[in-house]
Amino acid sequence: MCGIVGYVGPRQASDVLLGGLARLEYRGYDSAGAAIMSEDELVVVRRVGKLVNLREAIAGKPVPGTVGIGHTRWATHGAPNEENAHPHVDCSGKIAVVHNGIIENYMELREELAANGHVLRSETDTETVAHLVESYYEGDLTAAVIKTVRRLTGAYALAIVHLEDPGTIVAARVDSPLIIGIGDGENIVASDIPAVLEFTREVLVLEDGDVATVTANGVSVVDAAGRPADSEMMHIEWDLAAAEKGGYEDFMLKEIHEQPRAIRETLRGRMDATGKMQLSELQMTEAQLAAVERVFIVACGTSYHAAVVAKSLIEQWARIPVEVEVSSEFRYGNPIVGEDTLVVAITQSGETTDTLAAVREARRRGAKVFAITNVVGSRVTRETDGVIYTHAGPEIGVAATKTFTAQIAALTVLALKLAQANGMLDQKRVEALWEELSHIPEIVEAILADANDIAECAAEYKDANSSLFLGRGMGVPVAMEGALKLKEISYIHAEAYAAGEMKHGPIALITSEVPVVVVATQGHTYEKVVSNIQEVRARGARVIAVATHGDQDIQRHAEHVLYIPAVSEALSAIPATVPMQLLSYHIAKLRGCNVDQPRNLAKSVTVE
Ligand code: F6R
User: How many whole angstroms from 303 Cα to the centroid of ligand 1?
Assistant: First the structure.
């Protein structure tokens, strides 16, 4: 989730690019760069770290010129260093490219380009685009870009310049956002609206497959078939602060709504054409994966809840025993891990001290350790044997939302991979589960589109002091995550229990003042969950049930029902979590809490 800005017009491009990139820095910030047409030279400046480093470099050695492209990077392929920073150039140094997204077939393209004599200097997927444009260029940049994008699979927003066509930026997109701010004698390409608001409020939104040729005086767009495109113009009313949050009130709400994209990106390319689950990052052969006898997962907080989901999936599908432990306990325990154990460390930030210590302890005991993280180049990526990235983009709200559901998506792929490797799931079943998993983003979209009743429900419970969250099976980690979200952002005491445990103690807490949130989606323990609901209602509790569309009966047992579309039990954790996130969000907002920066909490917990 990088930030792109391109400028063509009468102003100094470096000023517009740096200003625009500053407004996009929330999208990613491990390196930044710009390519500017300066007299008869294409000057590329790139710096590691925050945008200020690029700003200082350009201030120290100004690059005059009125056409250019710029980028802030949130690394996906290759470490966050200067070689991998954008823009990337072709062999001649005349073509420069900035990119947001993931090009899935980049390995094949790299091999093909290298075989044809191109010299690639970075580890990125993006650099292949610069060389492909070079190979197709015959005097018309747009034509070369059209040929190039036909070779790409995956997601991209691209802005490309060529020294031989110095007044033009060619932009293209599939599955990554890209807009063009339409000014008077100037135009600005950007991955998001905040970057253009200083100059214009008229914005053209590119559609998937569009290729736009942008000059100072005009924009022409063709669609994927090469026909003139029917692009949509928008007038933007938002102020800058609202624009950074995509028009949402808070980053947390924006990030909740970004979940379909985050899950889609995390799943992208995970099954190949032969039906094999792809996790090449593990660098383990099928035979090594088939030989895994134990899995140990360490994590903290929300990431720990993703671990509990993974335990259920791996045990169910691959029939491999899985232990799950919070990192802070693991590091000081005497855990039974060794060479036969696959250890997985889940940490969205990649910087959590307790999890890093657990990783070191597991490696000290001889285990192979893999990380699941959202941050390329974070500490955990340097201390483990392999990394599976979630592609959720930067999460700014302190409460984890989109990184949690993206972790579950990645862990579901891991569980399928292990089960495929050891033969516990046959190919037909793997394909059927993958097919269903691929539709989870649409299910989340449907939940988000029909969420009004959640705000109404929140209004009734906003004054509670204490609450309980219950579930069974896959509903247990969902309940745990629901309780954590509510307590951390609304400051209402919330506890989660396996519903069957209620009668062993917690039921003593039940009064009409204690709302009980129950995960009651369809599954093999549904009837048992309904019995648990009856037990708490008999003691005066008010129940909010998360249930499956079509279950009318549940309305007899609960004051409020938050419905999700039907989904198989194993894949229900992501959809069932979304109403929980929204319920906590609305309750916290009604109580006047700062949901993005809850008290006492930090986004990366780098202390013990
Ligand atoms: C809760 C939350 C925390 C983190 C925990 C671990 O919303 O964000 O509980 O999940 O601090 O953080 P990571 O995943 O970065 O290791």
Answer: 6
For residue range 514-563, what is the model confidence (pLDDT) as tens digits? 999 999 999 999 999 999 999 999 999 999 999 999 999 999 999 999 99
Residue with tokens 């033969």: 423
Q: In sequence order, what are the residues at sequence separation of 6 or more whose Cβ sits closer than 8 angstroms to the Cβ of residue 415?
A: 310, 313, 314, 316, 317, 318
How confident is the model over 353-391, as pLDDT tens digits?
A: 899 999 999 999 999 999 999 887 688 988 999 999 998
Tokens describing residue 278: 């792809």
3-243: CATH topology: Glutamine Phosphoribosylpyrophosphate, subunit 1, domain 1 (3.60.20)
pLDDT given for residue 375 in this prediction? 80
CATH of segment(s) 446-593: 3.40.50.10490
The CA 421 to ligand 1 mean position distance, Å, reads: 31
Catalytic sites, residue numbers: 2, 603
Q: What is the pLDDT of residue 194?
A: 84
**pTM for the full predicted model:** 0.79
Strands across the sheet with 294-299, in order? 322-326, 294-299, 341-346, 368-373, 386-389
Probe residue for ligand 1, chosen from 326, 327, 346, 347 as the CB with the greatest number of ligand atoms within 8 Å: 347
Query: Looking at domain 247-438, which CATH architecture does it have?
Result: 3-Layer(aba) Sandwich (3.40)
